[in-house]
Amino acid sequence: MTDQTINRKSIFLLSGISNYGAIVVSIVVGLISVPIGLQYFGPVRYGIWLVIGSILAYLRTADFGVGLSTLTFMAQTTDSAHHRVILRRSISLLFWVSIVLIMLMIVVSHLFPGWTLILGKVPLDFQEEATTAAIAIAILILFHLPTTIFAAAFSGLQQVHWNRAYGALRSVFVLSALVATVSIGGNLITLAFFTGFVNLLVGIISGVHLFLVHPDVRPRISERVASAPSSRVLVISGARFLTLQISALIIWNTDNLVISHYLGPEMVTPYAITFKLFQMGLMMVTASIIALWPMYGRAFGRGDWQWLQRTYNRSIFLQIIPGGLVWISGIIFSQVIINLWAGPAAYGGIVVAFALGGYVYISSFGGSNHSLINGLNPTNIVVVFGVIEALLNLGISLVLVKPLGIGGVAVGTFLASLAINSWFPPLYIKRRTFGKVRLNRIPILTHVLVVGCCVILAMLTTLFLEGWARVGIGIIIIIFYVLLSWRLSPHNFKSLVGQTVLGEK
């Protein structure tokens, strides 16, 4: 076993453990924060806060993809001089972007007070509170923007675990902001200030940590490295990541805006909470794959095609088996879980559960593909298909929201992802790697058949059985799915599970 293989194993294991740890923290925070926020603010005001959060997600793309570009370029080299120049240029870019956007936001909010329409059908009693809260947290998020580079730098240095650790810390601090707001009897404005401040604080702490443990990457103002990517290259590469980010945000966050505009903010609450439950499942599924992005970038830079091919196909099954489990169990048990967690009014319905579960399954397959694509540094064609998926999601949701309600919005998310991610990413990977990395399709298609049969059984169980009968039959379906999936899995995947690592035998 080579030193390189041992290093990859240790990086993957450490990153995987930290990813799951961060996700567990995020899930626990979500389980605590949702009932606290819903009970304190009520369905309407809490729905408004969720809509504000959806808009803020778009604001976080104000880094123009520079953060992800920084991660990729740092991962593809071990030269500290390159790292210093990349960091200096990235931080400088985001500093000036944040200053310009803060000034622009202040001007726009003053000249065009009607911008609040973007929040949807906000009742008159809450409009002033919602507007002030949105502006306050937006400005604080923009102040935080340059500090996001530090987490990306940790990942680029093959230390994803620190990136995830600060993500977990941010989740805990955000929960503390909510608890502090409730304890002093604050409103959405108070919550906005507290939340924005703790985000900024975590960013500063991560920067101090980075430069303490990696003094060799501290930027030097006068340093120049001819072969390091210029600010222009960072922006051009970042623009591709930016478009992909926006496409993903349309898929993840526009649903809330569509529902708020057509059905009112009170209907955002059951959809968003049901989505959050399935999102937790998706986070658990994709946690193991996050660490591979910088590792793919390093292997691509070395031309290690054999490792890329083996790891890519193993990672697919590492994702789709638990992804199918989330789909099946979500259909059967999501209503019970949400009833216990946030109350019956927070459940979105069986159509929402079916569609979001399907979206998780497709995303589990797509996650493995996109992790490799990001490591290769995506080209313009990836951006085009990302935009197409986002537009499909929005278009289908707008068509179905009135006849099917929030279920129609969920169906739009599922169908758009199915239409693009079921075929395009593997084809792109094959062409981008000159056929040296390709998907083994037969095992995947076999698993799709298994999942489809079990989903049908889960739907019939949910529609026609209640109580313990549903639970009992549901458990049997899940056991049948797991055993059959394992039976039909490729030998190399079983070998991977036996070793619990991705690497050479």
Q: Please, could you describe this protein's structure?
A:
The protein has 505 residues and is an all-alpha fold. The chain has one domain. 82% of the residues lie in helices and 0% in strands. It has 18 helices and no strands. α1 packs antiparallel against α9 (268-290), α9 packs parallel to α12 (350-376) and α12 packs parallel to α14. The longest helix is centred in the first third of the chain and has 57 residues, at 3-59. It is globular.
Using the CA coordinates, give the radius of gyration: 23 Å
The description of the largest β-sheet is: none
Mean residue pLDDT: 83
Order of helices and strands: HHHHHHHHHHHHHHHHHH
Cα(first) to Cα(last) distance is 8 Å
Number of helices: 18
Strand segment count: 0
Stretches with pLDDT under 50, minimum 5 residues:
500-505
What is the helix content?
over 70%
Principal-axis shape: globular
Quaternary structure type: single chain
The domain count comes to 1
Q: Helices and strands: which structural class?
A: mainly alpha
Strand content: under 5%
Task: Provide a quick synopsis of the model.
With 505 residues, the chain is mostly helical. It is 82% helix and 0% strand. The radius of gyration is 23 Å and the shape is globular.
